[in-house]
Amino acid sequence: MGDFLVTAYPWIKSLHVISVISWMAGMLYLPRLFVYHCDAEPGSDKSETFKVMERRLLRAIMNPAMIATYIFGGLMLGTPGIVDWGSGWIWVKLAAVAGMTVAHHVFAKWFQAFAADANTRSAKTYRLANEVPTVLMIVIVVMIIAKPF
User: Fold this and answer.
1) pTM, entire model
2) pLDDT in tens, 1-32
3) What is the rounded distance in angstroms from the CA atom of residue 96 to the CA atom of residue 139?
4) Residue 15 neighbours by CB distance under 10 Å
5) Sequence spans of domains, the chain
6) How far is the CA of 32 from the CAs of 18, 25, 50, 89, 106, in angstroms?
């Protein structure tokens, strides 16, 4: 299996990057949709349109992209010679990925509240939440590229 992973590594890494970009696009866009959804009257055409947009973004893009990110990332972690498990950067990176996963699930819960016309949060909450994926993305990229420790 190790030989296959080494040979396939450029393809696995490419698919991982594509998956991450897709996941991040959704993670950055969904909270912004929530900001605008807050201003829509529940049951209005505008609110119903946001529900469709949020559902499609979450279910058709974000969920599959997150799963693909984990699959291809896991394959990269299993590729011999790629990760020095004694280095600190990989653990910080994995913690940030865990944080991104938690944020994803929180956003999915908020989606359910909007879908049920039961949102209780302000637009400010969603504006702040929109910064979480950005900060986590910065941490992840710095850990992968700079490997500071």
Assistant:
1) 0.94
2) 879 999 999 999 999 999 999 999 999 999 99
3) 7
4) 18
5) 2-145
6) 22, 11, 11, 30, 14
